[in-house]
Amino acid sequence: xxxxxxxxxPAAARGAVATLLQSLYTGFLFSxxxxxxxxxxxxxxxxxxxxxxxxxxxxxxxxxxxLHLMAFETKNQIVGLDEDKxxxxxxPIPSGRISPESTQILYVCLVLASxxxxxxxxxxxxxxxxxxAIVAYxxxxxxxxxxxxxxLSAIGYVCYSWGMSVCFxxxxxxxxxxxxxxxxxxxxxxxxGQAQDFRDREGDAAIGRKTLAILLPQAVGRWxxxxxxxxxxxxxxxxxxxxxxxxxxxxxxxxxxxxxxxxDYSQESDRRAYWWYNMWLISCHALPLFHRLRGLAL
Length: 298
Description:
Layout: H1 2-31, H2 35-50, H3 55-79, H4 81-87, H5 100-121, H6 124-137, H7 146-168, H8 176-192, H9 201-206, H10 212-215, H11 218-240, H12 244-263, H13 267-285, H14 288-293
Helix pairs in contact: 2-7, 2-13, 3-5, 3-7, 5-6, 6-7, 7-8, 11-12, 12-13
Transmembrane segments: 105-134, 146-163, 175-192, 212-232, 238-262, 274-291
Subcellular location: Membrane
GO cellular component, one term: membrane
């Protein structure tokens, strides 16, 4: 009996570790596609607004943001299951890694964890704004219309950067200039975020979602996006006054994204164009750094 128990203990431990690793990987799969387009810009902006931080504050901000992102992703992928079966079958629910019922339980747990952490950190305001926005986005189906999809997504972007910045800055509230930078960030995404929709045209059309990438003629949608990228680049360069080399890099990234968007209308090409758009967006979020380097407070 003792020998059997001795052999069973390591097996049980290995089983527990394997289950934990599978659960973590499933969680990673929920948000994998949004690590660069969401965490990238939020991380860039937060590090610039908060300045140097310590490891504990950095991890706190990352966990706070990931909890909120995961809450959105789990509910969004329950609501969008039919779309994912067609366009993104690798995601956890359509691939069979987790059931919709279990995902709903996970969603509730993530929402509760987000509010508990926000209450502890003094971040209930961005958390409440965020969850009102994602309920409107998912449960109320406002994301099926391009205008509300853009506005609600922009609110999400602002909240990610808001919470992460406060965590990185050891709980200090944002200054008026930092809030202006976040509002500018939200406005940029509200007016250019349709860049993500060109790669999802088939799935969006299948569920009846009305995005600009579907409603507008392809040439009009793509060239209007290109114009907005260059207009925003010019405005940001004027406002933040970065060095010439950084300004040229921003224009080069906007030009590269434009070139890929307008020369090939395939969804595979649109995925590459969206990557370049995100490189441009992340770089735009770093612009307040030059205000700080000139010795001015953010």
